[in-house]
Specification:
Elements: H1 2-17, H2 31-35, H3 39-77, H4 84-93, H5 101-118, H6 120-126, H7 132-152
């Protein structure tokens, strides 16, 4: 209520007095005074804000480089074409780029699984209805037959 009375009457009182009192426009007030601080406090505050901003930007660049490292890893793994943007992000971050430990563990597990799948026994385990013990027995029987045949061979 007081605001409305001041708003309605205040403008008319200024006109009535003819603007005898000069008020600075709000734009001309210093930033420090507007914040309710001294100039030194305001400068320290601005410096602190700038430092926090730089820390956030560095952290963001680090995370971008980590993501680029992960993407490049998967591109290599699946033989996809490289992305130059990822390479530049990694280079900008420098040698500080390290994969998160959880992701590194996952990648190591994937590599072990891939190595197992690429082995002969891993390939055989992928086949259905294959009895590995039976295959081993057949291989041993074949070797024994070969040995018997070589013993009977007149050239040897």
């Amino acid at each position: 209520m007081a605001f409305m009375v001041k708003h309605m009457v205040g403008g008319q009182l200024k006109n009535l007095t003819g603007g005898l009192t000069e008020e600075k426009p709000e734009a001309e007030k210093s930033d420090a005074a507007a914040q309710g601080m001294t100039q030194e406090e305001f400068e320290q505050y601005q410096q602190q804000l700038e430092e926090e901003k730089q820390e956030r930007e560095a952290s963001f660049a680090q995370k971008k480089a980590e993501r680029a490292t992960v993407r490049s890893h998967f591109r290599e793994k699946y033989r996809l074409p490289k992305n130059e943007m990822d390479e530049t992000q990694i280079q900008q971050a420098g040698d500080d780029v390290v994969l998160p430990t959880e992701l590194a563990k996952m990648i190591a597990e994937d590599n072990q699984e891939e190595a197992h799948k690429q082995s002969v026994l891993g390939q055989l385990s992928n086949l259905q209805n294959v009895d590995i013990d039976q295959l081993k027995d057949k291989a041993q029987a074949t070797l024994e037959d070969l040995k018997k045949q070589t013993e009977n061979c007149s050239l040897m």
